[in-house]
Write a sequence for this structure.
């Protein structure tokens, strides 16, 4: 019998915000135990630090510009792509998803949901489907979590604190902990697996447990809102160069979201609430692992924990994602299957979300029908010879607003097509990315080398728009006048 697969996915989870990643404060006992029984990657990155393209890369094993045709939040996965759930369903697995898929476009009411191969699904898309098809939230069947709250007497209260989905204002959830969304996602996942193991005791399962948190709003349920004293929370990272960094897109977001008005104390409280969401999610992961252990399934299950991207949570005065500082672009990645894989290893190999599908295909002995961009990490996980990437590429946004990152095991180079802004950080000597080295004579050779890596990669991967040499010129006044880049109400929308 093939091994089961439990893919645990978080939304907007930083790679450094776990005890097993060395965080001095955040409590993640269940993730820590998972890391102790498997391989934890300290240099795992998202190929695109935005939700939809990152999830498309996870699903297909390919870079977003290949599997959806865009680097933004609007791309449908193309029909010619291998799709993770569909791949395993066609090879005898029962496939289930609980939580957030974020596969677009969303299907109109009365039509089949776009689920790319999952047999059974319960959805919470943070209200996006509700907003698109019934903003009153009165129509049932659009988002399952919204409907569930009505059955337990808390209908509509998921947004009763008045904080929108991308609005970074900390507030406790008005919904009791047992009914909060991450708890519901775990409960429904357990229900799927209870049904599966009863009906199909000899059939392997692929369970995608997809938590919508710790994505904003930062609204942990009580008592997790008080778990971390904001006065003891480590302060955000700060840039030391003068003038301080302000790439145009980040500056615009700071204005539209109101972050430029925040006090240091508000930053610390937001981080404390984010940490509360992380620990609450860790509790749900523990519930699922304990269920599998109690049913005698854990030894035969490959467990992976990762996320679509991170969150700056105040670093350099910014929040959310869509940039290439470590808080945004680095994600957790833990792979555990103690019966077969190495235990307690912390690897610094450069890996990414596109590696998950080919790795799972390899571990289950099911070859992919076509080549994908991702690497098979199974040799590394088993302690065998493994050819690492010499450098890793991540990008976001389409021309003429593209941003790119190239990193090796020491340096990170960032390029913004808007105004042709360059950044270089020595992650060994400056892990908090406080000093941009571009312009220093000692850094010139490294900048040229990493630029060459970007050019080489872009040419080999048919992403040649970046090679045109044309930068988009934008002034500070353009940014203040919105410049047509982004909805000025972004930070204050519901969903």
């Amino acid at each position: 019998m093939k091994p089961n697969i439990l893919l645990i996915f978080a939304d907007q989870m930083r790679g450094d915000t776990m005890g097993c990643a060395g965080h001095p404060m955040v409590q993640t006992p269940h993730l820590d135990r998972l890391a102790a029984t498997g391989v934890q990657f300290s240099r795992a990155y998202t190929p695109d630090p935005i939700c939809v393209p990152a999830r498309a890369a996870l699903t297909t094993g390919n870079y977003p510009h290949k599997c959806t045709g865009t680097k933004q939040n609007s791309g449908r996965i193309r029909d010619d792509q291998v799709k993770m759930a569909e791949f395993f369903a066609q090879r005898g697995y029962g496939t289930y998803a609980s939580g957030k898929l974020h596969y677009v476009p969303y299907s109109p009411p009365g039509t089949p949901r776009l689920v790319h191969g999952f047999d059974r699904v319960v959805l919470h898309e943070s209200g996006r489907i509700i907003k698109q098809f019934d903003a009153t939230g009165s129509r049932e069947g659009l988002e399952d979590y919204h409907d569930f709250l009505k059955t337990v007497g808390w209908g509509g209260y998921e947004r009763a604190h008045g904080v929108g989905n991308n609005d970074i204002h900390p507030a406790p959830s008005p919904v009791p902990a047992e009914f909060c969304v991450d708890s519901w996602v775990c409960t429904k996942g357990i229900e799927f697996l209870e049904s599966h193991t009863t009906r199909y005791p000899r059939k392997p399962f692929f369970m995608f447990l997809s938590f919508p948190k710790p994505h904003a709003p930062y609204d942990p349920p009580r008592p997790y809102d008080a778990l971390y004293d904001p006065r003891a929370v480590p302060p955000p990272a700060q840039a030391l160069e003068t003038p301080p960094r302000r790439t145009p897109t980040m500056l615009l977001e700071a204005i539209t979201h109101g972050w430029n008005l925040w006090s240091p104390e508000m930053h610390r409280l937001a981080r404390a609430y984010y940490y509360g969401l992380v620990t609450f999610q860790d509790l749900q992961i523990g519930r699922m692992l304990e269920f599998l252990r109690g049913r005698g399934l854990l030894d035969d299950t490959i467990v992976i924990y990762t996320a679509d991207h991170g969150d700056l949570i105040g670093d350099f005065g910014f929040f959310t994602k869509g940039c290439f500082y470590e808080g945004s672009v680095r994600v957790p990645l833990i792979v555990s299957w103690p019966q077969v894989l190495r235990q307690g290893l912390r690897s610094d190999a450069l890996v990414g979300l596109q590696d998950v599908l080919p790795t799972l295909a390899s571990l289950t002995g099911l070859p992919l029908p076509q080549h994908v961009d991702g690497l098979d990490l199974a040799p590394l996980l088993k302690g065998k010879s493994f050819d690492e990437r010499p450098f890793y590429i991540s990008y976001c946004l389409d021309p003429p607003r593209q941003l790119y990152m190239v990193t090796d095991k020491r340096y990170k180079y960032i390029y913004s097509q808007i105004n042709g802004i360059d950044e270089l950080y020595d992650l060994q000597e400056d892990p908090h990315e406080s000093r941009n080295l571009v312009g220093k004579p000692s850094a010139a050779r490294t900048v040229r080398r990493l630029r060459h890596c970007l050019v080489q990669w872009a040419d080999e991967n048919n992403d040649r728009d970046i090679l045109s040499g044309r930068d988009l010129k934008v002034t500070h006044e353009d940014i203040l006048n919105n410049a047509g880049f982004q909805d000025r109400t972004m930070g204050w929308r519901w969903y």
